[in-house]
Amino acid sequence: MSAARVGVVTFPGTLDDQDAARAVRHAGGEAVPLWHADPDLKGVDAVFLPGGFSYGDYLRCGAISRFAPLMEELIPAARAGLPVLGTCNGFQILCEAHLLPGALMRNAGLHYVCRDQGIRVENTATPWTSDFAEGQEIVLPVKHGEGRYVADEATLNALEAGGQVVFRYVGGNPNGSLNDIAGIRNEAGNIVGLMPHPEHAVEDLTGAPSTDGRGFFSSILKKLVTL
Amino acid sequence: MSEHEARERATLDTVKRAQDTPDERQPYAELGMKLDEYDRVREILGRRPTSSELAIYSVMWSEHCSYKSSKVHLRQFGTKAPKSEALLVGMGENAGVVDIGDGWAATFKIESHNHPSYVEPHQGAATGVGGIVRDIMSMGARPIAVMDALRFGAADAHDTRRVLPGVVEGISHYGNCLGLPNIGGEVVFDPCYIGNPLVNALCVGLLRKDQIKLATAPGPGNKVVLFGALTGPDGIGGASVLASATFEDESHAKRPSVQVGDPFMEKLLIECCLELYQADVVVGIQDLGAAGVSCATTELAAKGTGGMDVRLDLVPLRDPSLRPEEILMSESQERMMAVVTPDDIDAFMAICAKWDIPATVIGEVTDGGRLVMTWHGETIVDIPPGTAADEGPVYERPFHEPAGQAALNADDPARLPRPEDLRATLLQLLGSPNLASKEWVTSQYDRYVRGNTVLAQPADAGVLRISEIMPGAEETARGIALSTDGNGRYARLDPYAGAQLALAEAYRNVAVTGATPLAVTNCLNFGSPEDPEVMWQFAEATRGLADACKTLGVPVTGGNVSFYNQTGSTPIHPTPVVGVLGVIDDVAGRVRSGFTAPGQKVLLLGETEEEFGGSEWAHVAHGHLGGLPPKADLEAERALALVLTEAASRGLLTGSHDLSDGGLAIALAESALAQGIGATVVLPDGDAFVELFSESSARALVTVDPESFDAFAELCAANELPCQCLGTTGGDALVVENVLEIPVAELRETHTSTLPGIFG
Questions:
Q1: Which residue intervals define the domain PurM-like N-terminal in the entry (chain B) (predicted)?
Q2: CA-nearest residue of chain A to B447?
Q3: Rounded distance, CA B692 to CA B726, Å?
Q4: Where would you tag: which of A225, B125, B219, B617 has the fewest CB atoms within 10 A of its CB?
């Protein structure tokens, strides 16, 4: 059986692509580099949109990336059910592309924040979180300047009622997100976006003092194997 | 031809015009040149320089670019250098390169951006990071981490609240956008830096040992390519105006002299350069920093076949009204210059296009021994490039010991009243701005990106894993460790010893992680070299550092001198900042900082004397600076490092921390704070105050599993290193029996609340 193929997208200014690819490999998958200018998903089984400052983020974060040639392929594929995970800038791009509702604004403290953050897993009905237990508390690093999740009241209520809030900050909210929201999913559950970085929490020697990020990669690989 | 063009053409100062108008008055003084320097240019050229040539010589011969006041002293780093097989590229290139084993090399350098960071803290600091990263790139390396050594005025001073947040935000934004982990550095407060903060940025890069690139332009017929950002009016004259003149009252008038950075362009440049190196289409390469095109063309040509023809009108501009003199002096950021063979030029351009990097062939290498530049067909520069790049003026500045030095040294801190309540003293020091947690600063830096960070602040040294940084490195188990240190108060009391103590601390910080110190970079921050008392401090510090490098067997690979750090006639404390790079054979065996598990034996290594001159206690409790700094015992440092690295490689250590500012008391508190594990210890016989707060060098705190204790004690004995067992880790308080007891939670509250209390 060949390894499940997870695409890792690189925009100009993407920074965590190497980390994401390594996390996929460590979990036993094959990481397939996808290039922003190349409208070709290369037949991957899932896509990871890593963090960074795509196109410099001189406009609203992620606002330009959503128009990249690759996104012309990715957006319809995601709507059709392709599992997609966006972290940090990837989450911002998913919101700008309207694959997820709401927006990420400047942190309430007005500073970039890099810290090891407590997170509660609120929903395991996604291909990226099935290996966690509902209510499980994990530690992942956050590192961002624009991570304050906002949405109008109706959207927030719908997210909460529909089980679409996937992660919540615990032990302090690093950015002032509404309802302490750290990550959400779409209604179907195949698209997940979050500000924290699972790809920086997969090894004992390096990164955050936690390996809780492994659950994301084991979840998706199991899902792809059993598909 | 438009009227504008016609007028421009008529005023163009060509070589022919210079020959025809030998007596025309030229603004050499306004450009920071002395009359005898100007006369020397005339002598070299056999005529007056054109205005473009004058621009080139004025920036290339500025203090910042030519090291004219420091050169005679810096030579000691070469003449006294210890023999080192690890040194692949030494001083004089963009950065030094060190062999770290298994076919890999590391390149690293620290550089100042002090004056721009005072004028415009955010952009000044940001472009400081950008500049040092390009130095590392131009060696053929992938930049892999940064760190910053920062000095500000008193933490609660009004202007510090303007400068510090701006500097931190500039470093944070630029470094984070580049995707380089920030793994360490320093933040120090002292009133002497209020009008002249220090922003010293360090970058380290990784490359294959056999793929070092150099700044050279060999091969007549090879193309000269300018690539990266467009050229604009940024920092025109920055090198000579900003870096070589003191601030007086009108510093705001200089605001436009500070360059503006674009980290996104720099990130693309990094990836583009790595792909160019991979494709092997680069013969020589140089970054454009201070003095921009002037520096890149003269240096490349001087180190190559000796000649270069450049069509300056081909330089792509952001502002089309720029004159040739301005193009030559522009310090627009994110630019590089490469020398490429005609056969490779198409492949070179294709890679630049892939990364959306503008690239333009602006000239060609020649063997004529002249750097010739034209502007729309007219020759405006015709000089021997070496005269600008390498043969600048050299000054033997006079120096003498400062008038008050003897009195300062005689003012021994022994006269200061000692505290009764050592618990209160410990908390007072722990919460003082220099020793308090720097998390307010470091949490604004990404320390995780690229996934190779093994240790980062507040660990004693940053440590990186090599194996996953670049393709092909998978087989090596090695890691590198880096630390920067410097203590302006020690150097003020004794610049010779102060420089040695800075090296000793960085060396020790690298060793406590288990790494073997290999090589040194330095950033020498001083006042005006025209002040003989400052020059004495500089001469003493360089002599001290060169001697110490020799004793410790670690060569200086490069660095930077920053003069004119003063306000009016008052210089800053002499502040040599020293960076040390070390290698750890198996990075998985690195030793973590502080107490990492309960039930471990706590050991104090080294000897404690009564040494309070320049100490943190004298500074915080009495605002006192006098006496002599701690003795720099380099043989003891060497023995300590040997024991630490040997013990780490044998897996004997479970935690470690160096002793420095604030002595044993602060080392114990920080060790407890590392993971929230307390300890109960008994002080060695003697005065409890001295044992706790003296700052004797060559000491460290380690923890060992009780089972490893005998083996470790034997290792210490074999190296004649004093080792005292103080107690055991565990519990949720720091207990010094019969002296004090402080819950870890209280330590944490004291340690973490200071900077947020000041900066919000």
A1: 92-206, 460-584
A2: A114
A3: 12
A4: A225
Architecture of the domain whose range is A5-226: 3-Layer(aba) Sandwich (3.40)
Model confidence pLDDT, tens digit, residues B373-401: 999 999 999 999 999 998 999 999 999 99
Nearest Cα to Cα of residue B257 among B176, B331, B201:
B331
Identical fold for domains B1-61+213-394 and B591-760, yes or no, is yes
Q: Which residue in chain B is spatially nearest to A12 when comparing CA positions?
A: B268
- List beta partners, residue B579: B484, B521
With an 8 Å Cβ cutoff, are B179 and A16 in contact? yes
Cα–Cα distance, B393 to B115 (Å, whole number)? 23
Of B670, B693, B664, nearest to B751 (Cα)? Answer: B670
Whether A19 and B465 lie within 8 Å, measured CB to CB: no
- The per-residue pLDDT for B215 is 82
Q: Class of B591-760 per CATH? A: alpha beta
Confidence of residue B705 (pLDDT cuts 50, 70, 90): very high
ipTM above 0.90, yes or no: yes
pLDDT tens by residue, B199-232: 999 999 999 999 998 888 888 999 999 999 999 8
What CATH class has B1-61+213-394?
Answer: alpha beta
pTM confidence score: 0.94
- pLDDT band for position B238 (cuts 50, 70, 90): very low
Size of interface A-B (CB pairs under 8 A): 85
Taking the domains of chain B in order of start, what are their residue ranges? Answer: 1-61+213-394, 591-760
CB-closest option in B264, B444, B588 to A53? B264
What is the per-residue pLDDT across B461-505, written as a single tens digit (0 to 9) for each?
999 999 999 888 889 999 999 999 999 999 999 999 999 999 999
Q: Which of A14, A58, A205 would best serve as a mutation to test chain B binding (most B beta carbons within 10 A)?
A: A205
Residue of A nearest to B465 (CA): A206
Domain map (residue ranges) of chain A: 5-226
Enumerate the residues of chain A whose CB falls inside 8 A of the CB of residue B465: 205-206
Kindly list the catalytic residues of A: 88, 197, 199
- Provide the shortest C-alpha distance from residue A208 to chain B (in Å): 7
pLDDT of residue B246 exceeding 50, the answer is no
